[in-house]
Design brief:
The complex is a heterodimer. By secondary structure, chain A is α+β, with helices and mostly antiparallel strands. Chain A has 16 helices and 20 strands. Chain B folds into two domains: 277 residues, MetI-like (MetI-like fold, Orthogonal Bundle), CATH 1.10.3720.10; 103 residues, Jelly Rolls. In chain B, helix 4 crosses helix 6. The radius of gyration of chain B is 32 Å and the shape is elongated. The chains are: A alpha+beta, B alpha+beta. Chains A and B meet through helix 7, helix 8, helix 10, helix 12 and strand 16 of A and loops of B.
Chain lengths: 539, 401
């Protein structure tokens, strides 16, 4: 074989190999790999109201309406339009083009079934109930329309409904709505959503595989009524470890990561192939005080008393923490120190409240006044894989509390056990996070500072059981006030009350940061939801 | 006896590397014992750690934290004037004026105060500050050792209304403490943290290996002495245990019992007793056949006496070799478990946890947080292993001249 022929043949071979190599590459380009810090705990859209689950639901299970948290607008989804018939009656027209996996369009029966199912999910922590709390009745209204009646006027109905994914009712007949089980005993088991037997409703994507701790695979829904997403497949890789998540992005194993760790920001900013995408988020990171149990589980050396029942101790702890220092050092400036619960860009923010000063001397004095001049033994608890830098922040708080004379230990736990233990009231001073997931302050406040009432779905995140009649009254009133200014005032008053009671130890509001390959367009979101269906390559 | 130890040591030091390794091992033992006296600070005392010292590179002097002066500026058509008071009580005047090139000039008259750092926060997105570094996310420009006049570029036109705040940091006093190996993300002195980390690792390693040796040797002697069913039972237990990866056993024990030094030691004993049991049994079986054991039996010595005074001493040489290697193994195991976050409490780091903390900073060019504890762990384990190897060579008759 002559040399030139040899070259020719090998060139041909190489071209063929190249073509073969390109083929899977173009297919691969249709897949978006996302590295997520916290994975959803379930595919069930009504199971657990937590960031990762809400984030998944947004992509796989449309609600009646969509709450655009960037501009605060309510946009149509399964309902093409809605009208307010009177103060407490709303009529929603359903989109006839929105069809379930079997080709059947969404109907009033599905809406009733889904709203009713919220109260009937087995093993659910029940936190979604507050969204349907004020709904008195849901009934069909002719072909393709549904009427929702609320208990008195509810200004937040659209925001509330935007959180409830609509799943397909197994029976064609509409249930008769009531506040318990709608006369039905056959509810779709959470497990069926998780193993992809039943689709979680109508969405741009649907889940084909959910493997806890590994990945969630989403496939494009070909029958979707709205704009088709660009990527055919999206794989959510669960990479809770910060270093590994960054490594996955740098090595190209994933295209986008969420919750970019603070330590890696500089490196990503300097990398021309990567881009940072950020938006101030509404999530408040706080520590909650156990204000109910006596003795409280993680405190020793107080003769069985719970010091957190004393407002002076709560004030002391609030003054002992240097929020500015935590934000500047541990969070590297990627957070805003918090004065109260609702952040400045969200409806209901109270601008009169100032970030509490750092005053360790006053803190020591208050502790002494409360009868603890030598402090007490305290173990504080925090998750280590839920919020950005959670265990680092917790350790910083531990140091600061040690400096005012408390004997502090820190325990950190993975979120899989942390939240169930927090809900069992096994902690005394413990970290949490809550965002305004409906886009305004009321839901965040109801979730966090209303007296805990699981029956009515109130105070779902109030695991420290802060309780104030005044706050409950303000929030109860806000729930039925349609006038915006009056409602804003009520929310502000409620927060001023918690501020005065030192009911929480608010630390900071997060700034949501994603990092993506710079040739990918990825939409940021104040609720820290991963919106996958608008992701696409930049032209 | 002394002559024998001297001869033993002479033979040991025929290998230079082993001698050096022995020296290093003894140095780490000394660290373990003397940690509270040689470490610059006590890293477990949370009161002595300040967040303001976080992430300082090696060799940095600790300084007293100085309060930052924040002065808001509200400019109309690029003109503004604001005043503040320095910590010493002197007035400080800021003046913003448009200069000839369409830029804004910020003049800072700080009198006696030495300004070490200025930050401008809240400038419009398209503005830039000459010579300053922008925060990758926030609208914040930082300038170290600034001149008295800063230049702000605001694009083609100066905005009619401009609001931002100026944060000024003054000179701070040193406390006389130097962080030789830098500090970690919590402001903990790395050198102290490493010394205490060595201490925990050594204690856990030694206690775990010694505990495993006690239990393993005991069970090994029982198996050899009784033989038959007892022997089979103990040896199958060993086989069963060896079939489970050691890290898995460790994870299991720690997730069930929770974190803590005592529990890590327990996990190590549970994992490592098997090696000792096997070795003891095999050596003891060989010894049992020897004449001196028969002689002891004829003298009607008790089983306990024969085992402890006659057989055990003859089993010791190989056990000592396994002990040294087990210590190294136990330290590695503790480091792995701590790295995985199930080992020790966050506030009392061992070497493994320091490495895990440093791993977080792998992508932020702060090499000292991960590398130094990693190096120390590496050196420690290599040294102990080399000592163990040397001992094995010495006890191996086939290598004898």
């Amino acid at each position: 074989m002559s040399a030139s022929r040899f070259i020719h043949v090998s060139l041909r071979g190489a071209m063929g190999a190249l073509a073969l190599a390109l083929l899977p590459a173009t297919v691969a380009a249709q897949t978006l790999n996302v590295g997520v810090a916290a994975e959803p705990t379930s595919v069930d859209p009504h199971f657990f109201r937590s960031g990762p689950n809400i984030s998944l639901r947004e992509n796989i299970s449309d609600a009646l309406v969509y709450n655009n948290q960037v501009n605060g607008e309510i946009e149509p989804r399964l309902a093409t339009k809605w009208e307010v018939l009177d103060d407490s009656t709303w009529r929603f027209t359903l989109n006839p083009k929105a069809v379930f996996a079997d080709g059947v369009p969404v109907a009033a029966a599905d809406v009733i079934y889904s709203i009713c199912r919220v109260r009937n999910v087995e093993g659910s922590p029940g936190a979604y109930i507050s969204f349907v709390e004020t709904i008195e009745n849901v009934r069909p209204d002719g072909e393709g329309a549904v009427i929702v009646e609320t208990q008195g006027p509810n200004p937040m109905l659209l925001q509330n409904l935007s959180a409830i994914g609509i799943v397909q009712s197994p029976s064609r007949e509409p249930l008769a709505y009531d506040r318990e089980n709608c006369g039905n005993s056959d509810w779709i088991a959470t497990n069926l959503f998780n193993n992809a037997t039943v689709r979680a409703g109508i969405g741009p994507y649907y889940v084909t595989e959910y493997r806890s701790g590994i990945q969630t695979v989403l496939e494009r829904n070909p029958d979707y009524y709205g704009e088709a997403p660009y990527y055919e497949r999206v794989v959510l890789h669960a990479i809770p470890e910060n270093g590994s998540r960054i490594a996955a992005l740098l090595s190209g194993r994933v295209d986008v990561i969420d919750a970019v760790p603070v330590n890696a920001i500089d490196q990503i900013a300097d990398n021309p192939n990567l881009e940072l995408i950020s938006m101030p988020a509404s999530r408040l990171i706080f520590f909650a005080f156990d204000q109910e149990s006596e003795p409280t589980p993680k405190i020793r050396g107080t003769n069985g008393a719970n010091p957190f029942k004393d407002v002076r101790v709560r004030e002391a702890i609030n003054l002992a923490v240097d929020r500015m220092q935590i934000v500047n050092t541990v969070m590297d400036g990627i957070a805003e120190p918090a004065a109260s619960i609702v952040m400045s860009r969200v409806f209901g923010h109270n601008p009169d409240l100032e970030v509490l000063p750092y005053d360790p001397d006053r803190a020591r004095q208050l502790l002494a006044e409360a009868g603890y001049p030598n402090g007490f033994d305290l173990t504080i608890s925090a998750p280590n894989d839920r919020y950005r830098n959670d265990s680092e922040v917790a350790q910083a708080v531990t140091q600061m509390l040690a400096q005012v004379g408390l004997n502090v230990q820190l325990e950190t736990l993975p979120q899989s056990v942390y939240f169930s233990r927090a809900s069992n009231y096994e902690f005394s001073l413990f970290m949490g996070g809550a965002s305004a997931d409906s886009g305004e302050g009321l839901s965040q406040l109801l979730h966090l500072i209303h007296t805990r009432d699981s029956e009515r779905g109130l105070g779902g995140s109030n695991r420290g059981r802060y309780s104030s009649e005044v706050v409950d009254r303000y929030l109860g009133e806000a729930l039925v006030t349609l006038d915006e200014e009056a409602r804003r005032k009520l929310l502000q008053q409620a927060q001023a009350e918690v501020y005065k009671d030192f009911g929480y130890l608010p630390l900071y509001h997060e700034v949501a940061v994603w990092a993506a390959r710079s040739d990918i367009h990825f939409e940021p979101n104040a609720a820290q939801i991963n919106i996958l269906y608008t992701a696409r390559p930049k032209n | 006896m002394n002559a024998r130890i001297a001869a033993f040591f002479r033979e040991f030091s025929e290998s230079r590397i082993a001698l050096v390794s022995l020296g290093i091992t003894l140095f780490f033992v000394a660290c373990t014992v003397l940690a509270p006296f040689i470490s610059p600070i006590n890293p477990y005392d949370l009161r002595s750690i300040r967040l303001s010292d976080a992430r300082l590179p090696p060799g940095t002097q600790q300084v007293e934290p100085v309060p930052e002066l924040s002065i808001p500026l509200a400019a109309r058509d690029g003109k503004a004037r604001a005043e503040g008071v320095t910590p010493a009580g002197d007035p400080i005047v800021l003046q913003l004026v448009p200069d000839s090139d369409g830029r804004l000039a910020l003049e800072i008259d700080a009198r006696n105060m030495v300004v070490t750092e200025i930050r401008l926060r809240g400038l419009p997105i398209d503005a830039s500050v000459q010579g300053a570094r922008k925060h990758p996310i926030r609208s914040e420009w930082t300038l170290a050792n600034p001149a008295s006049t800063l230049h702000i570029e605001t694009g083609p036109q100066i905005p009619a209304n401009l609001q931002f705040s100026v944060l000024i940091k003054g000179e701070s006093e040193g406390t006389g403490m130097t962080f030789l190996l830098g500090t970690d993300g919590y402001g903990r002195d790395m050198l102290s943290a490493i010394i205490y980390g060595i201490r925990i690792s050594m204690i856990v390693g030694a206690a775990g290996a010694l505990g495993a040796m006690a239990i393993g040797t005991f069970l090994g002697l029982i198996a050899a002495w009784f033989g038959g069913r007892v022997d089979s039972f103990i040896m199958r237990l060993v086989d069963f245990q060896l079939s489970i990866p050691s890290l898995m056993v460790g994870l299991l024990v720690l997730t069930m019992l929770g974190k803590g030094v005592d529990r890590i030691i327990l996990a190590i004993i549970l994992i490592q007793w098997t090696y000792f049991a096997r070795t003891t049994r095999s050596v003891a079986l060989a010894e049992l056949r020897k004449d001196y054991v028969d002689a002891a039996r004829c003298l009607r010595f008790s089983a306990l006496r024969i085992n402890l005074l006659h057989i055990l001493p003859n089993c010791l040489p190989p056990l000592l070799v396994i002990l040294t290697i087990s210590i190294a193994g136990a330290i590695t195991l503790e480091a792995s478990l701590s790295f995985l976050g199930v080992g020790l409490p966050l506030t009392q780091p061992s070497l493994g946890m320091l490495i895990a903390n440093g791993y977080e900073y792998m992508f932020s060019n702060m090499h000292w947080i991960a590398i130094y504890p990693g190096l120390v762990l590496l050196v420690m384990i290599v040294a102990i292993n080399v000592v163990g190897d040397r001992l094995r060579d010495m006890f191996n008759p086939q290598l004898k001249r």
